[in-house]
């Protein structure tokens, strides 16, 4: 069993593995799916309505000002969550070490959406996102993609393909292809901040 520590999370990501709490097992398990979902940075799809929301500046975008709050927002789901207190502690420590980051959307001084993940080399492993207002998480994701492009990142990992992510441009690739892209990305000297 791989221990759940910041060091092991970094090691796992660099090997194409990610952690997730599984309620049935009452444990954090490690996953390496045969097909991996990514968002090609040049393939991110912004709908007309989302582009309009971004142009209007309805949300203020901030980086790393409320990391733990973003995680808690992502964990606050009526259907339950895999983001346990242990996850929050480990990823907050990764944030303190400069490896985990949040992109947040704010309106009228309130956090209304965001996404978070871990940056290693030129790869960003997005973990989750949330919204309290329509389009708040999509604006955060659009800002994340823009930042990654500006800083020469080459891989945005979103783990599993969902219909929502597919509408935003996510695709699935075989695990071996993912590993090749990951290894190239890890060699890059990119800085998220």
UniProtKB/TrEMBL annotation:
Tell me the GO molecular function terms.
Answer: leucyl-tRNA--protein transferase activity
Q: Which UniProt keywords apply?
A: Acyltransferase, Cytoplasm, Transferase
Enzyme's top EC category = transferase
Q: Which InterPro entries match?
A: Acyl_CoA_acyltransferase (IPR016181), Leu/Phe-tRNA_Trfase (IPR004616), Leu/Phe-tRNA_Trfase_C (IPR042203), Leu/Phe-tRNA_Trfase_N (IPR042221)
Q: Where in the cell is it found?
A: Cytoplasm
- GO terms (BP aspect): protein catabolic process
**Catalytic activity, per the record?**
N-terminal L-arginyl-[protein] + L-leucyl-tRNA(Leu) = N-terminal L-leucyl-L-arginyl-[protein] + tRNA(Leu) + H(+); L-phenylalanyl-tRNA(Phe) + an N-terminal L-alpha-aminoacyl-[protein] = an N-terminal L-phenylalanyl-L-alpha-aminoacyl-[protein] + tRNA(Phe); N-terminal L-lysyl-[protein] + L-leucyl-tRNA(Leu) = N-terminal L-leucyl-L-lysyl-[protein] + tRNA(Leu) + H(+)
One Gene Ontology CC term in the entry: cytoplasm
Q: What is its EC number?
A: 2.3.2.6
Which is an annotated Pfam family here? Leu_Phe_trans
Transferase in keyword set: yes
Keyword Acyltransferase among record annotations: yes
Family, according to the entry, reads as follows:
Belongs to the L/F-transferase family.
The UniProt entry, under NCBIfam families, shows: aat
Main role? Functions in the N-end rule pathway of protein degradation where it conjugates Leu, Phe and, less efficiently, Met from aminoacyl-tRNAs to the N-termini of proteins containing an N-terminal arginine or lysine.
What is the protein named?
Leucyl/phenylalanyl-tRNA--protein transferase
Source organism of this protein record: Chthonomonas calidirosea (strain DSM 23976 / ICMP 18418 / T49)
């Amino acid at each position: 069993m791989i221990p759940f520590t910041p060091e092991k999370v970094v090691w796992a990501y660099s090997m194409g593995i990610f952690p997730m709490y599984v309620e049935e097992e009452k444990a954090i398990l490690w996953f390496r799916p045969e097909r991996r979902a990514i968002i090609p940075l040049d393939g991110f799809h912004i709908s007309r309505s989302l582009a309009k929301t971004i142009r209007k500046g309805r949300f203020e975008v901030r980086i790393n000002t409320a990391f733990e709050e973003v995680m808690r927002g992502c964990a606050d789901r009526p259907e339950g969550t895999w983001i346990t207190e242990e996850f929050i502690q480990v990823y907050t420590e990764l944030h303190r070490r400069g490896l985990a980051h949040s992109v947040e959307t704010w309106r009228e001084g309130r956090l209304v959406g965001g996404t978070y993940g871990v940056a290693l080399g030129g790869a960003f492993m997005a973990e989750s996102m949330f919204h309290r207002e329509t389009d708040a998480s999509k604006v955060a994701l659009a800002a994340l993609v823009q930042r990654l492009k500006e800083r020469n990142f080459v891989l945005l990992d979103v783990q599993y393909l969902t219909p929502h992510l597919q509408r935003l441009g996510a695709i699935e690739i075989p695990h071996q292809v993912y590993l090749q892209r990951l290894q190239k990305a890890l060699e890059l000297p990119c800085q998220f901040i």
